[in-house]
Design goal:
Number of strands: 8
Strand content: 5-15%
Shape: elongated
Radius of gyration: 31 Å
Helix content: 55-70%
Largest sheet: 8 strands, mixed
Length: 454
């Protein structure tokens, strides 16, 4: 193998480990971008890893073997500079996904930009002073007097500045108490930064080892993050309609669930006789009944494209038409209520085996304009809906006896169901806070469904 005179000290060095390191970095980049190409954070990390792989391939595998001039090898420094820029960009994008609450995030964001500027400075210095970089910085710690050369410090300072800014901005982000998945991947990045930075100056005999350690730390953190995100996605899919869950995955939670004023239909259901049933049966059996009940309601919600806002004891609150608007929300909401009644009866029938109190199901349905959106506290999200329709659906649910589905008259009108049909039984209007007059409503009989979800 021929050797570049610039790297004459490494004559006879086996470059196979560096080829493998380069392939590892490029493979990780491809894996991240192909597995989650819609995510801005994954794209930024993939670009950073791609430039790390290029840096190893160009700066070592190519630079050592071929007698290239200093200025050409100096240009290879831009692969390292761009790797720094995109690692900082990854940190910035992760910071934007973590709720800040009342905390001021400007300082941490500025640190990221300073780190990116330091990376660009390294690229400029590599272009202007290629020989100084090649002789006095790369692998400098393999020489006992490296610290005496000005070139060592000239190129080391931007690297240290970028590493310090990145680590500091991550540590500041941890003050926001991000969830376990976010903590895992940013902690892995903090641990990996010293190894990847140190690989530039320790000499070619050891730099491959440091680079592999840094990449493996990133890989472990990213893998754990995606595992936790997958579990979160499965959890969310039980509460959100499939189309909303997909929207959250592709565009992020903030985009999918930004605050809106929408006309929706609210469906509220709960079990009748649950307190007496819970007192008369072992807790394990009660929990099993609740699981079956939640599963049944969740299946109905998924089929109707509804969003589950709350599971509270034996009560469930569902939204039709949020966060994605649905022009047929009233008809779909009434049909959803019927489906829930039918599905819940199967659960209550199985729960009634043996002696003791029996369970029933009551449902309330109302439509109207509400404000919907995400509220966050200490890194936790809750999707909320505020408006008179929510209160009315809850009040009608409270009034419903076992097997009744009480629907506000306004919802019946919007669902295009003639109020004189036999299956719609008029009931005495109820007084509800927020409404000036008692609210007329109907009980939906046992006739097959009024509508099906689009």
């Amino acid at each position: 193998m021929s050797i570049n005179p610039i790297f004459a000290d490494y004559a006879g060095l086996d470059l196979t480990p560096y080829i493998l390191v380069s392939l590892l970095a490029l493979g990780m980049a491809l894996a991240f971008v192909s597995a989650d190409r819609q995510s801005p954070t994954s794209r930024a990390l993939a670009l950073a890893l791609a430039f790390i792989g290029m840096s190893v391939d160009l700066g070592i595998v190519v630079g050592v073997q071929y007698p290239l001039p200093h200025r050409v090898i100096g240009l290879f420094g831009w692969s390292e500079a761009l790797a720094i820029v995109f690692l900082m960009e990854w940190i910035m994008r992760v910071r934007r996904t973590v709720p800040a609450g009342a905390l001021d995030t400007k300082f941490g964001d500025r640190l990221v930009r300073v780190g990116q500027a330091a990376g660009l400075l390294y690229g400029v210095l590599s272009t202007l002073l290629p020989e100084v970089r090649n002789r006095q910085f790369l692998g400098a710690l393999a020489q006992p007097d490296a610290y005496r050369h000005y070139g060592f410090w000239l190129f080391l300072v931007p690297i240290l500045l970028a590493a310090a800014c990145g680590a500091a901005s991550i540590l500041l982000m941890l003050n926001r108490r991000p969830d376990r998945a976010e903590r895992t991947r940013v902690t892995a990045m903090v641990a990996a930064i010293p190894f990847m930075s140190g690989s530039l100056v320790v000499g070619l005999h050891y730099s491959a080892i440091l680079m592999v350690i840094g990449l493996l730390l990133l890989l472990v953190g990213a893998t754990q993050y995606h595992v936790l995100q997958g579990q979160r996605g499965q959890f969310m899919s039980r509460f959100l309609s499939p189309q909303v869950a997909r929207l959250v995955s592709e565009r992020g939670l903030a985009t999918a669930m930004q605050e809106n004023h929408l006309e929706i239909t609210v469906v509220c259901c709960d079990l009748r006789g649950f307190t007496a049933y819970a007192q008369a049966h072992p807790s394990a059996r009660v929990l099993q009944v609740l699981r079956e009940y939640y599963d049944a309601v969740g299946q109905c919600a998924a089929e109707a494209g509804a969003t589950i806002k709350d599971f509270a004891g034996d009560g469930v609150l569902l939204l039709v038409g949020a966060p994605l608007p649905e022009p047929r929300h009233a008809a779909i909401g009434v049909d959803l209520a019927r489906r829930i009644r039918s599905a819940a009866r199967g659960v209550t029938a199985r729960a009634a085996e043996g002696a003791g109190p029996r369970l029933g199901i009551g449902v309330g349905v109302a439509s109207g304009y509400v404000t919907v959106g995400v509220i966050a506290s200490s890194g936790r999200f809750e999707y909320t809906a505020v408006g008179p329709a929510v209160n009315l659906a809850s009040r009608l649910c409270q009034c419903a006896a076992d097997g009744e589905v009480l629907v506000a008259a306004a919802t019946v009108e919007q669902s295009a169901q003639p109020s004189g049909e036999p299956r719609l039984e008029p009931r005495k209007p109820v007084e509800v806070k927020g409404y000036a007059e008692p609210v007329p409503h109907f009980n939906v009989g046992e006739t097959p469904g009024l509508a099906t979800a689009a």
